[in-house]
Amino acid sequence: xxxxxxxxxxxxxxxxxxxxxxxxxxxLDAQFDLAKKAKFPVIILIGGVDGAGRGETVNLLNEWMxxxxxxxxxxxxxxxxxxxxxxxxxFWRALPPKGKIGLFLGSWYTWPILNRAMxxxxxxxxxxxxxxxxxxxxxxxxxxxxxxxxxxxxxxxxQETRLKLLENNPKTRWRVTKRDWDHFKRYxxxxxxxxxxxxxxxxxxxxxxxxxxxxxxxxxxTVGKIILEAISKRLADSDxxxxxxxxxxxxxxxxxxxxxxxxxxxxxxxxxxxxEASLEKYQGKLALLTRDTRFKDITVxxxxxxNDAAGKGGSIRxxxxxxxxxxxxxxxxxxxxxxxxxxxxxWRFWRHVPRKGRITIFDRSWxxxxxxxxxxxxxxxxxxxxxxLEINDFEAQLVRHKIVVVKFWLAISQDxxxxxxxxxxxxxxxxxKITEEDWRNRxxxxxxxxxxxxxxxRTSTSVAPWTLVEANDKNIARIKVLKTLCRRIESAMNAxxxx
Amino acid sequence: xxxxxxxxxxxxxxxxxxxxxxxxxxxLDAQFDLAKKAKFPVIILIGGVDGAGRGETVNLLNEWMxxxxxxxxxxxxxxxxxxxxxxxxxFWRALPPKGKIGLFLGSWYTWPILNRAMxxxxxxxxxxxxxxxxxxxxxxxxxxxxxxxxxxxxxxxxQETRLKLLENNPKTRWRVTKRDWDHFKRYxxxxxxxxxxxxxxxxxxxxxxxxxxxxxxxxxxTVGKIILEAISKRLADSDxxxxxxxxxxxxxxxxxxxxxxxxxxxxxxxxxxxxEASLEKYQGKLALLTRDTRFKDITVxxxxxxNDAAGKGGSIRxxxxxxxxxxxxxxxxxxxxxxxxxxxxxWRFWRHVPRKGRITIFDRSWxxxxxxxxxxxxxxxxxxxxxxLEINDFEAQLVRHKIVVVKFWLAISQDxxxxxxxxxxxxxxxxxKITEEDWRNRxxxxxxxxxxxxxxxRTSTSVAPWTLVEANDKNIARIKVLKTLCRRIESAMNAxxxx
Lengths: 499, 499
Prior knowledge:
The structure is a homodimer of 499-residue chains. With 499 residues, the first copy, chain A, is an alpha/beta fold. In chain A, 50% of the residues lie in helices and 12% in strands. Chain A has two domains: 3-237, 3-Layer(aba) Sandwich (Rossmann fold), CATH 3.40.50.300; 272-497, 3-Layer(aba) Sandwich (Rossmann fold), CATH 3.40.50.300. Chain A has 20 helices and ten strands. In chain A, the strands form two sheets. Chain A has a five-stranded parallel sheet with strand order 2-3-1-4-5, with helices on both faces. In chain A, helix 5 (110-117) runs antiparallel to helix 6 (123-142) and helix 5 packs across helix 9. The radius of gyration of chain A is 27 Å and the shape is elongated. The two termini of chain A are 44 Å apart. The relative contact order of chain A is 0.12.
């Protein structure tokens, strides 16, 4: 793996001085084109061993390129803010938008490698981390990102020389710490792990590029040229977007027309009196639960999806009505903003992942991808087919971080929907709630039903199950939502307690 | 995950009787088209819980379809033959060729699930197995296979009913074993594992299709219709082969023109006398090693690659000269046969993986993919880019099964090659060894050199390292090959011993 990066590569000063001005000019041109077209983001990871020039490379690239279109992220120890979210959150928030370059010093590989080298994790755990990294990278490249992964390498001998050199120079002495020497002592252990990381995560979409780090001129020119080539090549072919063929068996509706939605008993009713008693009970319970000291360690994400006019807003208000306003946030999901369109589709949801002790309620959610975007052909079949895995992966990351994920599908019948649409048309203050689009969606009832069933089948998991809510009667729906939410919070609290 | 498969799906007899003849006819037509075009293989996995009708489904499909184009594989306990090879070998040997359907009752998921349910493995190990399964499936679908994965499900209640029903009927009593009831007792444990398997391995290319297994008519019609749809859809678009865009940064030659090949000292020489002494020593050693009783537990795969006329044959003969003819096999790799062309490209190598106590020598190998196929454009950039990962994965499977993988690159200079080509032209009995193609390849020397360096950098791993052999002097080369082989066998033996 490291053969070519231990040969003693070198570039002499005169060659370097002759080449750099041309390279810089070309890089600036490429950057300008990239920003102008804004078709894809460029994500550059700079990894490697201590003393191989990772920091210098980042500095140099910042010097060579236009700082307006490049963002540098030194991924050191996570902040408190970051520790309260799943591990990948800090990377999601740092992703560059289309047209820009994100330069990462340290990446999703840094901590898995360190933890393994220090004996904190086992080999199988490292493998799991690497698979998570691969899934993230696959999602990024599937979403169109250009991902360039540099690994700066030094042989054991060269690393020692380099550390001593830095240490002996008064100007650079501060850069060599005890930690560097500790790592050096474990060189062979690290090497084995690095090899395994590079071998397992050099995919066709995002292979590692290993570069010898000893000679700064060789290293800098190589990194610069590869970035230039990669961006130029992608700019040249990004216009003819190739649609990927889906090679999977198609998802078909059930042959006996029976579906989970059809089995719901939508006729059930709850009279006003019983409703009010239940409402008081469960709102009271929710109020106590969210004010319990143990709630400080709990994070809740509640997702509301449902047919148009199914009453999502009403149900949400019954929740927020009993929770302290500082504790919750409601995120209505409409068309994505310009900033959001410049990012992978899950980005707009990752940015709202709450801290501990908070509840975030999504009024519509990431499930738009496999519902409206699927039915209306806003994305390709390949895109929504891979979304099931990406969504499960996203939610598994939330759950692994002890976030309670509660997902509601509010179901009404076609007749009930019509009744509500007509009512909205008539009632002045409700008229804003009904649009042409609602009527159009209604015509595709069967297609939506198929998409909903596939969604539940493919994303209702033991860790993040869907709750189907019979919503023809608003009272029934509101109580079921409150009750489910209380139950899920309670069991999460008990899990905290019993630890 | 299993919501829709617990609804009590049913198809009544008259509907079934009306639909089946049409379905069978359509399936036979599709099968015929598939065989005629022979563009891709169809791989169908039938998984699921006991009593959900897996066996019946396989039988029915065999009854419905043309047995000439369908191969059924009941993947029970592996045979002795199979136990001596890596786990995946039995699946590779069973893969259907293009134009045929392979029906698998039991799959690469069976044992990982069982081992986890029985507490033999941990969750992290299950994850590792699933990742291996995903890599295999990705390779299969990347190679064009249509992969359909059925999961036949029963609720706990239904499973109990079904097992009792089978048990109470004298005709089917034999089908219910103690093992079935043992598994039933662990229903919940299995369910959790099944859910995790389906969640993690439902990829966009090969999602699981979960089907309720209780009603045989519903089950059979559903399976039949999905197979029909999937094959028809793929037949319809398999003609317009879409080339996948490579989104990775391009692999560039080193900017200082220094490469691992250029650092080899090709001028070194070994005189005849010293050579003969060394030859005797190492051939003797190899003879002893391969006749040692501990060698019975060792498997060796030696790979020979090198420039044209680098002397691979001569080096191989120096090995085989000292090994018992029953112990070794030399596999010369030329253009693939018709049968091999109908399979994923690694298939022709998997079929030659030896049993224990044997040595298999490949004269050229799977590395053709990233050498000649890359340089001559015999495959797309996407194909050879993913090959590095696939090859590393293949070799890792061999090594995990304690196979010693020794890889030699025999390097000669451009001048030396010319000298040998000229000599071959002149010498009558060597004339067959030189073709027009050799001269053509020679013109692409630089491109090949780049491909060789990338190959070594990306596939030389600590578990399966490349040995670069300076081969301008044949004596030097032959001794280095023998010495390396002996050393690798010795250390594998010592590892066995110290266990």
